[in-house]
Specification:
Blueprint: H1 3-14, E1 16-17, H2 18-25, H3 29-37, E2 45-46, E3 52-54, H4 56-68, H5 75-88, H6 95-137
Antiparallel strand pairs: 1-3, 2-3
Length: 138
Amino acid sequence: MTDDAAAARATRAELVQIGQVAERTGLSLRTIRFYEEHGLVRPTSRTDGGFRLYSDDDVARLELIKRMKPLGFTVEEMQELLTLRAELDRPGPDRERLLDRLRMFHEAAGVRVTALRERLAVAEGFAATLADELRRRS
């Protein structure tokens, strides 16, 4: 076996199948496939039998997507942020422009978190009202 073949097998051994990714991330197989169909994640490799194989980087990408979802980011916005992060990992003259765009995502996330907190406060108030009513009627 050549050194390249041994390295490829060692790398492949570090990859995990979609079921393991689902367990690690808490995402369903269907959701992972949806994100793949929309270009948000691509399996690093496939087995000879065609099973998807994901790297730790792929899993981290899915974890980021999972954290964006409750904030209402669209698939397009998710893709933009993922692309932006990849571009920031490479040296280039547009770094400041990219950082400005990242700051905009940060601000948007902050606004959405605030809105979620407000909705949560309303929901908690409603649950407390029902609890009070139950105490009064019991």
